[in-house]
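Quick one, C-alpha cells below. Sequence please?
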C-alpha cells in the first residue's frame, strides 16, 4: 500500500481541527523510557493516534499511542508518545507516516530518542549517545514506491541527516548539565529478536556503536522532507555476545526507566538551546 499526498493532508487537517492555530515547530518521537516527557508538555492538547485518519496505533510496551501538542523547553512541540515499529507488522512507510503529517503541520525539526544495545566495547550500559550517523544496510526504504515530490526529491542526499548545528547544541547542553555524552553510529536491525553475537561482531567491524529496532525509518523520511534532525540513544544493555548473559525486553525497560531522569533533562536542555 502506498499513501497519497491527499491522505497525509487529511490526517493533518484532522489534527489542525483539534489544535487550532497552534504552530508546532519541533516534532519529538520518544522511545522506551521517555514517553513520560509527553506529560511535561505545558498547555497540552492530546490527540490519540486511533482518532487520526490513516494513523496506525503503537502496540509496543511502554508506548502510549498519542500525539501531545503544547510547549516544552520554550518550544512549541508535537510529542509522539509511542512510535510504530516494523516488527509490529507495519511497513516502513506506515512506521514513518506521522513524520510527514507533522511536517505538513509546520514542524521543521525532528528530535528522536531510542533505547539500544551497546556495540562499542569501550562504553557501558546506561551511557547516553548522540547519534551522528546511522546504518540501515538491508530491507526496503520508507521512501520506496512512487516519490511524492511535495515532500522531497526521488534521490535525497543522506550526507547530513543528523543536523550538525543541533549536534553542537546537544554537546553544549550535555556539558552544561555535566551529563557524559557519547557520540556514534546507530545501526538499525528490524527485530523483534535481538541480534546474534555474530551479527554484533560483524557490525562492530563495520563501524556500528549501537544497535536498535527503530528511529532510522523516521529519520530517512524526515531528511527527505527537509527537516533538521537531532537523535539520542540510551544504551540500555551491552549488545549480544559481549557479556555472557541473555538479553531481555524487561532488562531494556528497567535500564530505560533508571536513566530516564538524566535523559529527559538532556533533551529538555537541548530544546531550550535550539
Ligand atoms: N538490540 C536491539 N535493540 C535494542 C537492544 C539491543 O541489544 N537494546 C535495546 N533495544
Amino acid at each position: 500500500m502506498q499513501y497519497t499526498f491527499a491522505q497525509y493532508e487529511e490526517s493533518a487537517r484532522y489534527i489542525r481541527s483539534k489544535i487550532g492555530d497552534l504552530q508546532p515547530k519541533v516534532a519529538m518521537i520518544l522511545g522506551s523510557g521517555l514517553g513520560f516527557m509527553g506529560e511535561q508538555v505545558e498547555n497540552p492538547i492530546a490527540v490519540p493516534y486511533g482518532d487520526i485518519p490513516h494513523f496506525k496505533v503503537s502496540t509496543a510496551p511502554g508506548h502510549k499511542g498519542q500525539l501531545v501538542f503544547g510547549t516544552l523547553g520554550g518550544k512549541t512541540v508535537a510529542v509522539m508518545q509511542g512510535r510504530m515499529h516494523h516488527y509490529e507488522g507495519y511497513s516502513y512507510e506506515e512506521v514513518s507516516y506521522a513524520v510527514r503529517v507533522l511536517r505538513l503541520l509546520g514542524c521543521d525539526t525532528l528530535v528522536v530518542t531510542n533505547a539500544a544495545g551497546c556495540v562499542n566495547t569501550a562504553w557501558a550500559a546506561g551511557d547516553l549517545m548522540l547519534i551522528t550517523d546511522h546504518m540501515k544496510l538491508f530491507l526496503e526504504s520508507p521512501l520506496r514506491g512512487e516519490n511524492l515530490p511535495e515532500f522531497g526529491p526521488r534521490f535525497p542526499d543522506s550526507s547530513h541527516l543528523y543536523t550538525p548545528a543541533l549536534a553542537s547544541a546537544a554537546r553544549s547542553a550535555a556539558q552544561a548539565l555535566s551529563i557524559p555524552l557519547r557520540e556514534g553510529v546507530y545501526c538499525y536491525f528490524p527485530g523483534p529478536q535481538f541480534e546474534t553475537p555474530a551479527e554484533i561482531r560483524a557490525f562492530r567491524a563495520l563501524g556500528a556503536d549501537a544497535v536498535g529496532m527503530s528511529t532510522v525509518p523516521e529519520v530517512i523520511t524526515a531528511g527527505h522532507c527537509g527537516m533538521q534532525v537531532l537523535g539520542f540513544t540510551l544504551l540500555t544493555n551491552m549488545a549480544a555476545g559481549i557479556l555472557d548473559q541473555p538479553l531481555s525486553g524487561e532488562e531494556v525497560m528497567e535500564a530505560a526507566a533508571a536513566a530516564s531522569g538524566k535523559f529527559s533533562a538532556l533533551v529538555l536542555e537541548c530544546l531550550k538551546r535550539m
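The beta strands are 26-30, 42-48, 66-72, 75-81, 109-118, 128-135, 181-188, 210-212, 228-238. The radius of gyration is 17 Å.
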